């Protein structure tokens, strides 16, 4: 798996693909003998290897939803998926499996206003400008309709899902937004099969029997394994077939895709009605991270989703004339990451994973100088709206010292926590799917040097200072004072500095002591191609590129802020919208 991904993610192939796409021509091998009719369009291959009404690129939640909806609308559908079938681990599959299910008794007008505020903030008085003012009104209307159908859509694919776990209720994340009370947008709900409680906890999620699956594994299983493979075998899926570029007519109309098959041969795929881009974000693209992420985008960020997400669809869209929208937006907090294996280490990237210890007793988070800088509980507290904006704290620039002093940050913890639980999530994310090794006692990571260990806080500070990424910034006295102060707060039950929730506090006092690097990052990027409510991809003048659609994190609707579960929700809402609108077009030829 890593070997094939290395070939795909290499900077050489990335640059080569960009140049070929920008030239707007097909490789010579696609032409019968190099001889073309006098009036033939050189952009269009003389022979198509495959054809379908709707061609979907990517088989995560958005791609699967688009394929299902297009097929149910009467279109023939072909899906091109970059990953191999046996190791098809998308962001959807590796996620927590939560989504939004508003209370149906909520006020429809208020729902539109609340959704609009989340998406772009256009209707928030204190905001200077909306994030997507040219599409936000129609987008909010579309989403307000679609979000009410997400649970039913999932249950239609997999009736054995647990209905109780999907029941609406609770409070939404942003009480300061218009329509909060009246909309009854509600809490995040969970996707899991009815026998989830009987699951063997020693089995990875993807190895468990169907009825005991939960989280993103259940979401994936419902859409791909049941929704497509079982219920709609007529949808053809080509695995290990990454799309390389779009085929366009002179007028910009997208009529097909050039891809690479399992044997490494270029193939031409005709899309008689439309193409849906659902290839995900750019989490593992070095050039795009460097171009779009704030601060040290390559070495100073991490993501814990699909390693195959290298911005392919974003690049194809750019070459086709698509506009970009808030590309730096990210569903992120701070998370641990580690150098592990090729090609990631070679490219300077670390593999991120989901922390399980950012706001638990016997731990604090400090910057490179040894100072706390926030209430650690914000990072994971689902009752407050800020956790997926916490990366903004981590990438703050220290102007006076000309340094990103919080990249990386350091999780400092003691033996109590080390022995009590894994400090990363063992069930989902990159550890749960076998991309990173981890033992429940954390000792494997300690032995690898991923977690520093010392007999005293002062010695731990020296080891942090010796780490190249600390840049000799750590002050041992300052770190010791920080821990002493925090421990005093634990004794009184009140955090005098940042107001951390008392239940999450516990002194860092039992040696040995440990330090683990934490980086801005999370499940995925959110910015990318500009698209409207129909999910048509837009050019820089706001005009739709004919027959080209996008859904999922490649063109997320959540450009302002993010409530946990929003990405899976939009996978279904926007995926269905894209598939439906592509299917209703008249064939081009």
Structure description:
There is one protein chain. The chain is α/β, with parallel strands linked by helices and 589 residues long. It has 17 helices and 20 strands. The strands form five sheets. Strands 1, 2, 5, 6, 7, 8, 19 and 20 form an eight-stranded mixed sheet that branches. Strands 9, 11, 14, 15, 16 and 17 form a six-stranded mixed sheet that branches. A two-stranded antiparallel ribbon has the order 3-4. It is globular, with a radius of gyration of 24 Å. The model is unreliable at 1-39 (pLDDT under 50).
Q: Report the β-strand fraction as a percent range.
A: 15-25%
Estimated structural class: alpha/beta
Distance between the termini: 38 Å
Describe the largest sheet.
8 strands, mixed
How many strand elements?
20
> How many helical stretches?
17
Residues in helix, %: 25-40%
Kindly summarize this structure in a few lines.
It is built from 17 helices and 20 strands.
């Amino acid at each position: 798996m890593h070997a094939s991904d290395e070939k795909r993610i290499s900077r050489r192939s990335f640059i080569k693909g960009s140049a070929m796409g920008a030239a707007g021509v097909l490789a010579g091998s696609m032409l019968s003998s190099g001889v073309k009719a006098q009036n033939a369009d050189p952009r269009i291959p003389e022979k198509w290897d495959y054809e379908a009404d709707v061609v979907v690129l990517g088989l995560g939640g958005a791609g699967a939803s688009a394929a299902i909806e297009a097929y149910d609308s009467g279109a023939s559908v072909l899906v091109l998926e970059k990953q191999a079938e046996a190791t098809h681990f998308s962001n959807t599959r590796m996620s927590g499996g939560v989504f939004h299910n508003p209370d149906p008794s909520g006020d429809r007008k208020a729902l539109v206003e609340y959704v609009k505020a989340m998406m772009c903030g256009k209707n928030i008085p204190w905001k200077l400008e909306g994030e997507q003012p040219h599409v936000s009104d129609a987008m909010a209307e579309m989403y307000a309709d679609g979000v009410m159908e997400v649970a039913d859509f999932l249950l239609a694919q997999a009736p054995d899902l647990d209905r109780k776990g999907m029941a609406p209720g609770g409070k939404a994340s942003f009480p300061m937004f218009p329509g909060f009370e009246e909309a009854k947008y509600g809490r995040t709900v969970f996707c899991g099969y009815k026998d989830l409680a009987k699951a063997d906890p020693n089995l990875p999620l993807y190895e468990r029997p169907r009825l005991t699956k939960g989280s993103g594994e259940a979401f994936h299983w419902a859409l791909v394994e049941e929704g497509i493979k079982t219920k709609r075998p007529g949808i053809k899926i080509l695995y290990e077939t990454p799309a390389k570029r779009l085929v366009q007519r002179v007028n910009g109309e997208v009529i097909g895709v050039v891809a690479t098959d399992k044997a490494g041969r270029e193939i031409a795929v005709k899309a008689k009605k439309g193409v849906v881009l659902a290839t995900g974000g750019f989490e593992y693209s070095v050039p795009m991270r460097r171009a779009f992420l704030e601060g040290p985008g390559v070495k100073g960020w991490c993501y814990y989703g699909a390693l195959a997400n290298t911005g392919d669809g974003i690049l194809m869209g750019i070459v086709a004339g698509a506009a970009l929208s808030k590309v730096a937006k990210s569903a992120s907090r701070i998370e641990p990451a580690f150098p592990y294996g090729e090609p990631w280490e070679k490219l300077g990237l670390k593999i991120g994973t989901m922390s399980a210890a950012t706001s638990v007793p016997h731990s604090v988070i400090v910057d490179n100088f040894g100072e706390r800088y926030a209430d650690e509980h914000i990072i994971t507290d689902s009752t407050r709206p800020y956790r997926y904006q916490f990366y903004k704290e981590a990438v703050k620039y220290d102007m006076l010292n000309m340094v990103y002093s919080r990249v990386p940050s350091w999780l400092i913890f003691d033996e109590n926590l080390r022995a009590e639980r894994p400090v990363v999530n063992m069930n989902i994310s990159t550890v749960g799917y076998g991309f990173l090794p981890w033992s429940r006692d954390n000792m494997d990571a300690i032995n690898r040097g991923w977690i520093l260990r010392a007999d005293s806080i002062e010695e731990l500070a020296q080891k942090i200072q010796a780490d190249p990424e600390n840049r000799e910034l750590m002050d041992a006295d300052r770190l010791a004072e920080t821990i002493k102060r925090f421990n005093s707060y634990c004794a009184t039950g009140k955090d005098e500095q940042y107001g951390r929730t008392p239940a999450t506090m516990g002194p860092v006092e039992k040696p040995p002591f440990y330090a683990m690097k934490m980086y801005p990052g999370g499940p995925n990027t959110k910015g990318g191609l500009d698209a409207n409510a129909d999910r048509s991809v837009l050019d820089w003048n706001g005009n739709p590129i004919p027959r080209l659609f996008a859904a999922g994190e490649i063109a997320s609707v959540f450009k302002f802020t993010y409530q946990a579960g929003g990405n899976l929700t939009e996978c279904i809402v926007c995926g269905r919208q894209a598939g439906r609108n592509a299917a209703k077009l008249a064939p081009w030829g």
